[in-house]
Every structure is written in structure tokens, then in C-alpha cells.
Design a protein that fits this description.
heterodimer, A: alpha/beta, Rossmann fold, 3 domains, six-stranded parallel beta sheet, elongated, B: mainly alpha, 5 helices, 77% helix, flat
Chain lengths: 486, 104
């Protein structure tokens, strides 16, 4: 299997088309109506990229038009097809079985696979550089390729170990609270500097120990970077790792001079970076402070003694059903607690009943309502809530003043007015829903004791127009549905 | 291809990515992450080159391993994205249309 020195024009063109398909795949996501077509473009792009690679790797003897494989080549082909079948089968079954509430950990797990695959491809290129066309017959790898390879392996390894930790935290297999090592900033910066230095050294010395240490240190830093980050910041982390997996693919694309990989890497890299930015903004946190970690560690002492018992009103399902049925417009604000309680289906049933009574029902989604960007939208879509009833924060926030009932289920911090008024609050500056402007606020909560992720009290509990519905979210909504039927 | 042309493609693609991703509706950010995951597995191209090449047994096996991992992602990523996107529905005229959809 000889590698052509310069790839033929059709090959370059095919990879370019694959890259364009990937752009169209993302473009399709600008609206749910075009999204499925977009996804098919993505599949087509992948098929073109894989098909082209298979074709150019098949040996075509001079003068012949079709490849004439030897038995050894056929054995290779069969091995590859088996590998694709194993991986594809596993992936397909997982995709079919996964629960929508578990999407964040699935995405984290998938990121880790991209990272590990990048490390393996990087090592494969290191071990057999001639096959990748990045070394002369003497096996000396070009300096530029060494940098690209080193960076690809480093980013891939960071993506892998970081995603494994993110997966464990999201799946609840590891405590979500931050684990703080003493002197971790010094350790992290030192490790990063060592990785960069060694990649530089790699251009001078092609020895296996250099790239080996780069790989090991990168695995370590991915782990060290993610363990101090708390559960509340996981949406940012998942987006960030999404970005890294893209940069790893791009670095490998540079090594292999492959346009499809470079375009994809750039797309995925910017996508993850933008999502991280959106998540940070939605929590009013700087990217640096998220990466530095520690948020949501121990709730600060103090404040506890000052907390006087304030009066609040408790409502029953019947009271709630009556007020909801009389309302003109109801805005439902769901949070992750709703998904934990698996209340989305019965919530949609409640929405249907209210609509049958002539009530306008809208859903208001905060960017950090779920465990990853857009997570809550998927959960509502799964419960058959039409997407044109679901609104983003900035599109609906002006409507609360004309709303009869704001119905808060499983959310807390995202409706806390302290974010607007209390400069000392840990969530100060975070954009929140103006639920306090609604005529009536209904707040479903398990008990008065628990507080949100950020560990702050919420003034909305104690307002005159607030009705606290203390129960399991699913049970409470079921009771409201029953009461509405009478 | 020389380094500068590759770099140009990369830089241009970053800009394209920036504008395309900002145009993605926030409601579809989770499918966006799932599909970017699937397409970043285009790294399978490198894995295929490695597994098909002769000359280093270690390299071919690493390549085959990477083919398995990337395939999990490609098939899993596109399938889970398709599954999510199929759930996004517009408000429809109740019963009748729902029955039609159900019959499909």
C-alpha cells in the first residue's frame, strides 16, 4: 500500500465536500424544521470522508482502474469492517437506549472517546510516520508534523481524562462537589508548561520518551483540571470539552493534511467555545473562575443566624388547580428538579388541560435550566411539548407582568430576585426570570429546607402572592391534573 | 498542500463555525453538541489510514482500536441526534394530525 506523494485532485475535492456537508449539518440546526435534513447532511459527509479514505487506501496497480486487492489487503479490509461493526453496533444500541435525562453524561462519554481516538491516531502516526506521509524513508518525522502530532495527542489526552471525570460527576458515580488539592494552581500551570516545553523539545528529539511523557502529563492535567469543578458548573465543562475534542481533531487534520478533519475540527472547536461562553454568561461567571474551580464547595457560614423565620403560604393542589383554571396566561418555569422527578410528561398533561380550558400556556427556559445547553428543551420535546410554546429567557421575561400565574417547578436560582438586587449574593448578576411580577407565583418544592445549587435563600418564597406547593413535583402535578378534571 | 493553505482553510473554517453556531437556536443546543460529537469523529480517517498501513503492527492495532472508538461515536452520535430531533414538533391540530403521525 503505497502512499501517493501528492493526493489526487478528486480526493481533495471529496474531503472538501465532506467538510461542506458538516457545515450544512450545523446550519440545519438553526430551526427545528430544518434540523433533520441537517443531520442527514452530517451523515452524508461522514460517509464521503470514510468512503474516500477506504478507496485511496485500496491499492490500484499502475494501469488498472479498479483496486486489485491481495488476500492480505482483504484481511485488512475485513478487520476494519469488523472494527466499524463493533463500534457502530455499540454506539447504535447506546443511542437507542439512553434516557434523555442522561444526555449530559452520554455526551461527556462520547467526548472521551473522541479524545482517546485522537491519542491513538497520534501514536499510530508516530509509530508509522511513513504511512501517513509525514516522514522521509529514513523515518525522521518533519518538525512541523511533530508539533501538530504532539499537540493533537496532548489535547486528545486532556479531552479524554477530563471527559471521564465529567462523565463520572454527571452520572453521579463520583461526588459532584469540588475536590480541591492544595497548590493545585501551581501544579496545573507547571504541568501545562511542562507539556508545552516537551512538545517544543519533541521537534529536536523524536525519542519515544518525549511523546510518552507528553501523553502521560496530558492525561494527568485533564484529570486535575476537572476534579475541582463543582456540579453546577458542569454545563460549562461539557461545552468546553466539546470544544477540545474539536481542536484535537483539527490538530490531527493538520498532521494528515486532511481538509475534512480541519474544517470539522474548526467547526466543533468554535461550537464548544461559543456554548461555553453562553453558559458562563447565563450564570454570570467568568470562564477563568469556572476553570479555577471550587464553586459550590461549602456554603459560606454566616447569614444563618440572621435568617429569621419569615411567614410563607402553603397551598394545596386544589387551590392551585382553581387559580390555574381561572388564569388567562400561565408561564411554566421548569428546572432540573422537574427532570429528576420525571414530572415532564404529567406537566405537559396539565398544560393540555389548561389549554382546553382556554388558558394560554407557555414554557420559559433558562439557559442553565438543565445539565447541559438546551437540555431542558429536549426533555420538554420528549414529553411532546410543541417547540413553539417554549421560549428563551430574553424572549419571555417581559411577559411576566401580564401573566396570571408563574408556575415554578424544580427551579430555584433562576427565579431568585437576589440575582438582581443583592450584591453580596453568590448568584448576583446572573440573568433571572422576573417571576415576582406575575399576579400569582406557584412554587413546587419538596420542602422549605432545601435551597438551590448556589445555596441561597429565595425571597420569592415569602411574597404575598406566592403559594408554596410542598410535595414531590410529579405527585403535586398529578394532583393538580386530577383537581382540574373536576 | 503546504502549511499556509492548510492554515488558511483552518482559519476560514473557524470563522464559518463562529457564524453558523451563533445561528443555531438555543432550543437545539443539546442536539448541536451531539452532532458535533459525531462529526468530530471524522478523526476515523486517520484511524483508517493507520489500520490499513503496513510496516508497523503496533500502529495498525492502535488504528483499529481508534476505528472502534470513532465508530461508536459516529453511529451513536448521529443516531442519538436523529432521535432527539424527531421529538421536536410544532403545535399541531390535536387528534387528527397526531393520529396521522402515529400511523406513519
Amino acid at each position: 500500500m503505497e502512499h501517493a506523494t501528492a493526493p489526487a485532485a478528486w480526493i481533495m475535492l471529496a474531503y472538501l465536500i465532506a467538510g461542506v456537508c458538516f457545515i450544512l449539518a450545523l446550519r440545519g440546526l438553526s430551526s427545528p424544521a430544518t434540523s433533520q435534513k441537517g443531520n442527514r447532511y452530517g451523515m452524508a459527509g461522514m460517509a464521503i470522508a470514510v468512503g474516500t479514505t477506504m478507496l485511496i487506501e485500496a491499492p490500484v496497480p499502475p494501469g488498472a482502474f479498479l483496486p486489485q486487492p491481495t488476500p492480505a489487503d482483504l484481511a485488512t479490509l475485513i478487520r476494519i469492517l469488523i472494527a466499524i461493526a463493533i463500534g457502530g453496533g455499540i454506539g447504535f444500541v447506546i443511542a437507542r437506549r439512553i434516557k434523555m435525562t442522561d444526555m449530559p453524561q452520554l455526551v461527556a462519554a462520547f467526548h472521551s472517546l473522541v479524545g482517546l481516538a485522537a491519542v491513538m491516531v497520534g501514536w499510530a502516526a508516530y509509530l508509522n510516520p511513513i504511512a501517513f506521509g509525514i516522514a522521509g524513508a529514513d523515518g525522521i518525522i518533519e518538525a512541523q508534523s511533530r508539533i501538530e502530532m504532539g499537540l493533537g495527542i496532548a489535547i486528545g489526552a486532556i479531552t479524554f481524562s477530563g471527559s471521564v471525570i465529567a462523565f463520572l460527576k454527571l452520572a453521579g458515580k463520583m461526588s459532584g462537589s469540588p475536590i480541591m488539592l492544595p497548590g493545585r494552581h501551581v501544579i496545573n500551570l507547571g504541568t501545562l508548561a511542562a507539556i508545552i516545553g516537551l512538545v517544543g523539545w519533541f521537534t529536536q528529539d523524536q525519542s519515544v520518551w518525549v511523546i510518552g511523557v507528553v501523553t502521560a502529563l496530558s492525561f494527568a492535567i485533564g484529570f486535575l483540571l476537572i476534579i475541582p469543578i463543582g456540579g453546577a458548573d458542569m454545563p460549562v465543562v461539557v461545552s468546553m470539552l466539546n470544544s477540545y475534542s474539536g481542536w484535537a481533531a483539527a490538530a490531527m487534520g493538520f498532521t494528515l493534511h486532511n481538509t475534512a478533519m480541519i474544517i470539522t475540527g474548526a467547526l466543533v472547536g468554535s461550537s464548544g467555545a461559543i456554548l461555553s461562553y453562553i453558559m458562563c454568561k447565563a450564570m454570570n461567571r467568568s470562564f477563568i473562575s469556572v476553570i479555577a474551580g471550587g464553586f459550590g464547595a461549602a456554603p459560606e457560614a454566616g447569614g444563618g443566624e440572621a435568617k429569621a423565620q419569615r411567614p410563607w403560604k402553603r397551598g394545596s393542589a386544589e387551590d392551585a388547580a382553581f387559580l390555574l383554571g381561572e388564569a388567562e396566561q400561565v408561564i411554566i418555569v421548569p428546572g432540573y428538579g422537574m427532570a429528576v422527578a420525571q414530572a415532564q410528561h404529567v406537566l405537559r398533561e396539565m398544560g393540555d388541560q389548561l389549554r382546553a380550558k382556554g388558558v394560554r400556556v407557555k414554557y420559559a427556559i433558562h439557559p442553565v435550566a438543565g445539565r447541559m445547553p438546551g437540555h431542558m428543551n429536549v426533555l420538554l420535546a420528549e414529553a411532546n411539548v410543541p417547540y413553539d410554546e417554549v421560549f428563551e429567557l430574553e424572549d419571555i421575561n417581559g411577559e411576566f407582568a401580564q401573566t396570571d400565574v408563574a408556575f415554578i417547578i424544580g427551579a430555584n436560582d433562576v427565579v431568585n430576585p437576589a440575582a438582581k438586587t443583592d450584591k453580596s449574593s453568590p448568584i448576583y448578576g446572573m440573568p433571572v426570570f422576573d417571576v415576582e411580577k406575575a399576579k400569582t407565583v406557584m412554587f413546587i418544592k419538596r420542602s422549605m429546607g432545601g435551597v438551590g445549587y448556589a445555596g441561597v435563600d429565595n425571597d420569592v418564597f415569602y411574597m404575598d402572592q406566592t403559594m408554596m406547593l410542598l410535595a414531590d413535583a410529579k405527585k403535586m402535578v398529578e394532583d393538580i391534573v386530577k383537581a382540574l378534571q373536576h | 498542500m503546504d502549511f499556509i493553505s492548510i492554515l488558511s482553510i483552518f482559519v476560514m473554517a473557524c470563522f464559518v463555525g463562529y457564524y453558523v453556531v451563533w445561528s443555531v437556536t438555543p432550543a437545539l443546543h443539546t442536539p448541536l453538541m451531539a452532532v458535533t460529537n459525531a462529526i468530530s469523529s471524522v478523526i476515523i480517517v486517520g484511524a483508517l489510514v493507520a489500520s490499513a498501513a503496513t510496516g508497523s503492527i503496533g500502529s495498525s492495532w492502535l488504528g483499529l482500536g481508534a476505528v472502534v472508538l470513532a465508530s461508536v461515536n459516529i453511529f451513536g452520535g448521529f443516531a442519538v441526534t436523529a432521535r432527539m430531533l424527531a421529538m421536536y414538533k410544532k403545535k399541531d391540530k390535536p387528534a387528527v394530525k397526531a393520529a396521522v403521525e402515529g400511523a406513519k
